[in-house]
């Protein structure tokens, strides 16, 4: 039977069935079963799939305890990137050279890009998570923080179950529902799963070929441009107009060159290519030009610090030098960052959730206040800025 798209089903049934989160967990699961049947799945299939699903409080604790993202870029990179990880990445590149050759020929994704994700997500497949995936997805969908993200993944897992590629009782992964060596959500597996080793199955947990080919296809479908760079370390001149920096502002590479931005090694990309100048810890710290492919990273993960670290690590695995850490101004503690976000909110800025994490909205607000107060507008919050606010 051809299944109706969930968006169409939503238009035919009462909105409360699809907008609901919270309430009793058992009632929530009953609604999920009704939604599955309405989308064309048999009652027996829905019953078997959801049989025994449990609310997992450990998932919610993990969701609320992502303190690592409060670390500033330099500390975060040193936390994630060790010489051992660099050496293992280069070893894995040699071991799976034929697979990476296929990926580069088919999808145009550089091996360093996939190796970096493989390293950060599961330490090259050595730890893929031991949370029951269905329990994680249903728990997070029931939670009213991000149901729009996780509810569709439940039904993608149901489709995988019907094809024999998901076991509600035994499939495990990360606390947020990602599965396999490069940690893909069920919907991404449905749309981008590739049988890279030719055994007739897509096995992202046990087959590096399947996992890497699938990850490459997903990046390609997200808009990765073959043959183009993604990130490059640069140096910036004194007196640069710092208000032009940040991921939301893009200028041609030739414009950046005219402003005095220079590559730390090699040469800049084509002069007509658009790029953003990123100063993760202000104008005294590391500096990078981010090219259009860098934006694709945010389709994989929304954390600016994680994305920049993954993109930088990919360049390291392809031969780039360790970045120049510079002498960045002192940043804020988690507690101070929350105080800053509250003060920014009081001035009318949208910083999202007050969570002590320097995300993109907080950076934009910081830069605006730095301009207003006559401080270097590099979007890096300091105790001096907090004091002036």
From TrEMBL:
| Pfam families registered for this protein in UniProt | PG_binding_1 (PF01471), SLT_2 (PF13406)
Residues that span the membrane, as ranges: none
What molecular function does GO assign, one term? peptidoglycan lytic transglycosylase activity
SUPFAM superfamilies for this protein: Lysozyme-like, PGBD-like
Tell me the domain of life. Answer: Bacteria
One GO biological-process annotation of the entry reads:
peptidoglycan catabolic process
Domain (Transglycosylase SLT) ranges? 25-314
Annotated signal sequence is: 1-19
Where does this protein have coiled-coil stretches?
none
In terms of Gene3D superfamilies, this protein maps to:
1.10.530.10, Bacterial muramidase, PGBD-like superfamily/PGBD
NCBIfam families linked: MltB_2 (TIGR02283)
What's the protein name? Lytic murein transglycosylase
């Amino acid at each position: 039977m051809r299944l109706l798209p969930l968006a169409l089903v939503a238009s035919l049934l009462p909105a409360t069935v699809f907008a609901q989160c919270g309430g009793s967990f058992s009632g929530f699961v009953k609604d999920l079963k009704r939604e599955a049947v309405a989308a064309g799945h048999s009652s027996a299939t829905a019953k078997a799939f959801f049989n025994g699903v449990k609310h997992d409080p450990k998932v919610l604790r993990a969701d609320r305890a992502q303190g690592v993202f409060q670390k500033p870029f330099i500390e975060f990179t040193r936390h994630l990137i060790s010489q051992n990880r660099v050496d293992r990445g280069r070893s894995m590149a040699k071991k799976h050279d034929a697979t990476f050759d296929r990926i580069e020929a088919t999808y145009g994704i550089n091996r360093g890009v996939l190796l970096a994700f493989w390293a950060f997500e599961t330490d090259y497949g050595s730890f893929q998570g031991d949370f029951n995936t269905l329990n994680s997805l249903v728990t997070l969908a029931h939670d009213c923080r991000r149901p729009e993200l996780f509810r569709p993944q439940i039904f993608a897992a149901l489709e995988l179950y019907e094809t024999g590629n998901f076991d509600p009782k035994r499939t495990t992964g990360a606390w947020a529902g990602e599965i396999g060596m490069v940690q893909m959500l069920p919907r991404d597996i449905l749309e981008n799963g590739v049988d890279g080793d030719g055994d007739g199955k897509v096995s992202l947990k046990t087959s590096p070929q399947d996992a890497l080919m699938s990850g490459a296809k997903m990046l390609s479908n997200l808009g990765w441009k073959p043959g183009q760079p993604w990130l490059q370390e640069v140096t910036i001149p004194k007196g640069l107009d710092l208000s032009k920096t940040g991921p939301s502002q893009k200028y041609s590479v030739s414009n950046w060159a005219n402003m005095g931005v220079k590559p730390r090694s090699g040469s800049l990309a084509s002069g007509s290519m658009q790029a953003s100048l990123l100063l993760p810890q202000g104008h005294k710290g590391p500096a990078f030009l981010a090219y259009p492919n860098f934006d694709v990273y945010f389709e994989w993960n929304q954390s600016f610090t994680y994305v920049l670290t993954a993109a930088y690590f990919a360049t390291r695995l392809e031969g780039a030098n360790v970045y120049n850490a510079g002498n960045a101004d002192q940043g804020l503690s988690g507690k101070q960052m929350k105080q800053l976000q509250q003060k920014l909110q009081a001035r009318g800025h949208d910083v999202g959730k007050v969570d002590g994490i320097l995300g993109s909205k907080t950076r934009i607000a910081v830069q605006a206040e730095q301009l207003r107060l006559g401080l270097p507008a590099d979007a890096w919050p300091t105790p001096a800025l907090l004091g002036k606010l």
